[in-house]
From TrEMBL:
This is Sugar ABC transporter permease. Belongs to the binding-protein-dependent transport system permease family. It is a multi-pass membrane protein. CDD domains: TM_PBP2. Residues 71-263 form the ABC transmembrane type-1 domain.
Length: 278
């Protein structure tokens, strides 16, 4: 191995390590604040070690907001939205990739154009529609409208993946065996789309979990608040207990980290398997 290659490899690994530490620092700093007193936030030099106040801060979080109910609400809404996005996006993306029908290109281009429209522009029309349906302060108002941008991105993502992954010979073999269109999607296309679906499921779940603006607009029943709305109530008008806020944020972030690790393992494993087969 030449010295030049060794130096380049060392520099690359060094930059990756530095980048990884920098990306982890916000989570570390949040954890430090969550385990210390609020007065420690304003110390100089700042306190960079974990404290012993985390359990006390967590008790204050549970005393100030209905964290458990909001947590369950967020899990239910995020899971339902993820399942619906995966089903409709995978089905539409599969048919856009492997079927040609009149207007398919036009429809797909309209789908791409919809991705360029900021979601804030549809906030008022969406609220009017939801209000006319009588869905204000219901979970349907959180799940169904959020499917539109997520499903549009998901259709584009699945279509691009399916075009290169699902070969026409497999579909022809399925047709010879008597599979109709939906069975081709479910038994042939869906299993081959698992790596793309792992990423899309992760993306959809985290997006719904972190959504704040739309739940704030359509929810006025405290029993149906999501975590983001409940955590915002930890901020008072005249002062903010940052340790309290960070403790609640840390509790809301830990499930996302666990889910990310589970999905990313499946995602990377399937990608590696596909690369070996190729």
């Amino acid at each position: 191995m030449s010295p030049t290659i060794t130096i380049k490899s060392f520099a690359l690994h060094f930059l990756l390590i530095v980048g990884g530490l920098l990306s982890l620092f916000p989570f570390y700093w949040m954890s430090v604040i969550a385990t210390n007193k609020s007065s420690d936030v304003f110390r100089f030099p700042p306190k960079l070690v974990f404290g012993s106040n985390f359990l006390l801060n967590v008790q204050h979080v549970f005393a100030n907001i209905n964290f458990g109910t909001s947590f369950l609400n967020t899990i239910g809404v995020s899971t339902c939205a993820m399942v619906l996005v995966l089903f409709f996006s995978s089905m539409a993306g599969f048919f856009f990739a492997k079927y040609r029908f009149p207007g398919s290109i036009v429809l797909f281009n309209i789908l791409l154009i919809s991705l360029m429209i900021p979601s804030q522009l549809s906030l008022i029309p969406s609220f009017i529609i939801i209000s006319n349906f009588g869905w204000i302060s219901t979970f349907k108002a959180l799940i169904l409208p959020g499917l539109v941008p997520a499903t549009a991105f998901g259709v584009f993502w699945i279509r691009q993946y399916a075009k290169d992954t699902i070969h026409d010979e497999l579909l022809d073999a399925g047709r010879i065996d008597g599979c109709h269109d939906f069975r081709l999607y479910w038994h042939v296309g869906f299993p081959l789309l698992r790596p793309a679906l792992a990423f899309l499921g992760l993306f959809s779940f985290i997006s719904t979990w972190n959504d704040y603006l739309w739940p704030l607009v359509v929810m006025n029943n405290p029993k149906k608040y999501t975590l983001q709305i409940s955590l915002s109530q930890l901020n008072s008008i005249y002062s903010t207990d940052y340790s309290l806020v960070m403790a609640g944020t840390l509790l809301a972030t830990i499930p996302l980290i666990v889910i990310f690790l589970v999905f990313s393992k499946q995602f990377i494993a399937n990608i590696a398997a596909g690369a070996v087969k190729a």
